[in-house]
Structure formats: structure tokens, C-alpha cells
């Protein structure tokens, strides 16, 4: 591919000359100007494929150059530079379609690498067609593999009953979705569905969480508290991570399952409640019973109907369905039109997915927001996988790619840092630290 003709817009003579001479040495044809007026005049005459512009120039800014360049040529790759960037400026640049955003003073190798990436973006992908699946199901409980079809059969038979169900499977396999599917297809569908993460509730508080408590029954109980079982009367209670319940509380849980009565802390008498219980665990409860860590009688009470949810690596044929489902979901949420290519889908199907469907969902959200030119290809998928893999802080898997991803996610979420941190898979305080390092806080 022949080097492109570029326009450089920079009011600092030394910086403008450095970029101009450096690119000319690489074989590029360069037009260089020092003002937005000159830049827009040039853009009116010539649809440049690549434009490099400072943000803060004169009475107008590089954002005006960006608008003019993209207005003249929709696929123009505009690289913006600034020594005093702000979050608002970066977001405006990203929303305006800027190809990249470089902080000054810049490293020349970084500048040249960015220009070459911009140049490569015009190359047509070879034999990497977009994939599409028509008539995608609306439900997130998706899969046509034998393991999932078997689950559907069990759910269809057990849902109309009041039988207690135990769901076993690795974290992220979709156990709560199955619990909700059981509830939606039961005679209790119009009543509450109450999920409780037993592993996230402190053992000392689990009893009051489930059974309730009266005012004054313990230190800090300044009012009556309605327990989950009573609040979900005539509905379904989903006890997630049941394997984390402490042994001394398991007996009380067993009594509830036997008698369907609760006694709130501090209450003089018990009361009857009508709830269906669906429990889930990512642990081998049978082994815990053998080791004396889980009551055998409680295990029998919970294990009326047992459903084992297979990990995603054992149902790779479902990856395409799930990926397209999440792609549609996040395209609609963010008003985007990202596409998944054949190479991107192959890379997903080859991956082991240690975090199962939940990991695939989070990665599809990330890819939908960040996809270069809206195409999720093999490189984009492998980059996303690399970013999600455990890494040492400051490792070379971050740097420029991560900064670019942070910019795009913040723009897509309208500057919502909590949402951006979730999509990026990092804590909010980590995002703040990285924004500070990028000079955006």
C-alpha cells in the first residue's frame, strides 16, 4: 500500500516541523498548516485520509478540524494531540470519531505507529466476512447443545411443580438465569423472585436476612426487619452459593424446609410462609457432606431435583448464539452497529472461557463498545482476552491499547465511571488512577 497523503495542523512551529519532516522521511506526502482556518480551507479542497491536529490552536480547536475532516471524508482517520487534555475533550473527540488521541510531548515512535495503524485501517480485510444469525431467541438462557437441551427438558417438567431444585455448576454458567426460568414457568410467576447470595452475607447476619428480626432483637436493630422468606411469600427464593452457609446455621435452614415456618429474631412464635426454594452452588456438596462440612439431611432436602449446568467449554457450539445475542443487546443499548467477523467468532470458539457465559457477556460488551471501525475480528478478540487475563500491574499488556479502550468506554457510557470500570473489568479506584496517569483528572 502506497503511503497516504496527510494533513498536519499544529501552531507550534517546532512540533509541526518535527512531524512533517519525520513523516516525509517515511515516504509520506505531508501538507502542514498552523491554523484551523488554513486546515478547514485545505479540507474543503482535499479529502485527506489521515489528519493530525493539535486540539488547542486558535479561536477554534482541533475538534472543529475533526468535524470538517470527517464531514469531507467519513472514514478520515483523525489523530488529535494535546498537552492539556481534559475528560470532556477526550469524550468529545471520541464521540466525533477521532481515530486516536495522543498526549504531548509525544514519543516519535508512538506517533509513527499511530499513523501506520490509521493507514492500515483503510486496508480491506481479507476473507473475513461478518457473521450473522437470524431469529435469535430473546431469552438470555440460550443454547442448543445437548447439555442445554437436557436442562430445558428438566425445567419444563419441574417448573410447574413446587419441588425444591438444586443447581450445580461453575461460577458464571448461568445458574440464576435457570432459577429465574423455573420461576417464570411456575404457578408462582406473578409473585416475587428473591435472590440471596449466601456467600456475600456475613454469617452473623444471614439468619436475620432470611428469617427477619424484631426491633431490639440485636445490637443495631432499630426497627422490625422483614426477612426474605416472608417478603417472598407465595413466590420463589433463590439461595445462591448454598455451599457457603455455615454448619451451625444449616440446621435452621433444614427446619424451615421441613416445616415451612420462620421465626424472626426476637419473635415469640413462628409463622408459616409459602415459598419455593431453588438453591445453587459452585461447590461439590456431596464431597462436603463426606468431609462433614455440610449436613447430609439438608443435602437430601435440597437435592430433590438436581440440575448440573455445564461450563461453556463443554458447550462450544453455543458460543456463536451467545455472542450474537450479547452483540445485539449491547448494540441496542449503546446505539452502535458493531459486527462480529468469522475470524473473531473462531477465536471465541477456540477460547476456554474460564469465567463461562458471564465472562463472554462482559467481553462482548467491551468489544461492542471498543471494536475498531465497528468490526470484532480475531485481533480484537485476542486483545480483549489478553486484557482480561490476570497480569502484573504495569505490565506491557496495558499501555496504549488500554488507554485507547478507556477513552472509548468512557465516551460510550457518557462519562459514567462506575459503568466504564465494570465494562473494563477493573475497580473504580483503579480507573481513577489510570485517568490521572493519562492526564485526564
Any overview of this molecule?
This protein is an alpha/beta fold. The protein folds into 3 domains: 5-120, Response regulator (Rossmann fold, 3-Layer(aba) Sandwich); 146-309, P-loop containing nucleotide triphosphate hydrolases (Rossmann fold, 3-Layer(aba) Sandwich), CATH 3.40.50; 313-437, Helicase, Ruva Protein, domain 3, CATH 1.10.8.60. 46% of the residues lie in helices and 14% in strands. Strands 2-1-3-4-5 form a 5-stranded parallel sheet, sandwiched between helices. Strand 4, helix 4 (87-95) and strand 5 (100-103) form a beta-alpha-beta unit. The radius of gyration is 28 Å and the shape is elongated.
Number of helices: 19
Rounded radius of gyration (Å): 28 Å
Q: Give the name of the CATH superfamily of the largest domain.
A: P-loop containing nucleotide triphosphate hydrolases
Strand order of the largest sheet: 2-1-3-4-5
Query: How would a crystallographer describe the biggest sheet?
Result: 5 strands, parallel
Named CATH architecture of the largest domain: 3-Layer(aba) Sandwich
CATH class of the largest domain: Alpha Beta
Quickly count the domains. 3
Looking at the structure, what is the overall shape?
Answer: elongated
Number of strands: 16
Alpha carbon gap, first and last residue: 40 Å
Quote the CATH topology of the largest domain.
Rossmann fold
Strand content: 5-15%
Share of helix among residues? 40-55%
What structural category characterises the helix and strand content?
A: alpha/beta
Low-confidence runs: 392-398
Mean pLDDT: 88
Amino acid at each position: 500500500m502506497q503511503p497516504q497523503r496527510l494533513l498536519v495542523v499544529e501552531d507550534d512551529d517546532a512540533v509541526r516541523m518535527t512531524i512533517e519532516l519525520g513523516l516525509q522521511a517515511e515516504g509520506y506526502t505531508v501538507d502542514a498548516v498552523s491554523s484551523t482556518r488554513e486546515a478547514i480551507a485545505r479540507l474543503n479542497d482535499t479529502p485527506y485520509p489521515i489528519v493530525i491536529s493539535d486540539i488547542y490552536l486558535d479561536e477554534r480547536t482541533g475538534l472543529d478540524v475533526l468535524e470538517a475532516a470527517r464531514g469531507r471524508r467519513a472514514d478520515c482517520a483523525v489523530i488529535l494531540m494535546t498537552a492539556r487534555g481534559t475528560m470532556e475533550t477526550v469524550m468529545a473527540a471520541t464521540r466525533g470519531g477521532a481515530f486516536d488521541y495522543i498526549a504531548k510531548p509525544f514519543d516519535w515512535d508512538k506517533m509513527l505507529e499511530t499513523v501506520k495503524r490509521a493507514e492500515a485501517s483503510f486496508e480491506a480485510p481479507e476473507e473475513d466476512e461478518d457473521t450473522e444469525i437470524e431469529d435469535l431467541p430473546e431469552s438470555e438462557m440460550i443454547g442448543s447443545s445437548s447439555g442445554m437441551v437436557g436442562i430445558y427438558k428438566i425445567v419444563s417438567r419441574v417448573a410447574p411443580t413446587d419441588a425444591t431444585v438444586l443447581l450445580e455448576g461453575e461460577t458464571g454458567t448461568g445458574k440464576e438465569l435457570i432459577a429465574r426460568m423455573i420461576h417464570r414457568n411456575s404457578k408462582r410467576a406473578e409473585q416475587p423472585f428473591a435472590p440471596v447470595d449466601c456467600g456475600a452475607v456475613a454469617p452473623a447476619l444471614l439468619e436475620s436476612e432470611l428469617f427477619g428480626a424484631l426491633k431490639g432483637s440485636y445490637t443495631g436493630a432499630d426497627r422490625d426487619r422483614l426477612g426474605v422468606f416472608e417478603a417472598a411469600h407465595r413466590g420463589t427464593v433463590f439461595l445462591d452459593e448454598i455451599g457457603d452457609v455455615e454448619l451451625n446455621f444449616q440446621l435452621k435452614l433444614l427446619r424451615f424446609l421441613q416445616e415451612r415456618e420462620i421465626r424472626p429474631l426476637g419473635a415469640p412464635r413462628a409463622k408459616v410462609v409459602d415459598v419455593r426454594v431453588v438453591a445453587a452452588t459452585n461447590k461439590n456438596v456431596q464431597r462436603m457432606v463426606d468431609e462433614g462440612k455440610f449436613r447430609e439431611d439438608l443435602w437430601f432436602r435440597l437435592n430433590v431435583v438436581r440440575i448440573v449446568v455445564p461450563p461453556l467449554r463443554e458447550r462450544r457450539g453455543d458460543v456463536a448464539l451467545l455472542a450474537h445475542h450479547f452483540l445485539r443487546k449491547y448494540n441496542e443499548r449503546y446505539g452502535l452497529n458493531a459486527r462480529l467477523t468469522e475470524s473473531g467468532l473462531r477465536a471465541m470458539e477456540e477460547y476456554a472461557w474460564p469465567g463461562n457465559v458471564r465472562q463472554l457477556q462482559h467481553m462482548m460488551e467491551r468489544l461492542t463498545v471498543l471494536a475498531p471501525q465497528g468490526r470484532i475480528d480475531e485481533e480484537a478478540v485476542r486483545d480483549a482476552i489478553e486484557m482480561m487475563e490476570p497480569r502484573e500491574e504495569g505490565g506491557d499488556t496495558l499501555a496504549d491499547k488500554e488507554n485507547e479502550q478507556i477513552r472509548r468506554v468512557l465516551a460510550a457510557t457518557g462519562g459514567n465511571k462506575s459503568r466504564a470500570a465494570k465494562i473494563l473489568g477493573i475497580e473504580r479506584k483503579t480507573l481513577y488512577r489510570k485517568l490521572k496517569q493519562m492526564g485526564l483528572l
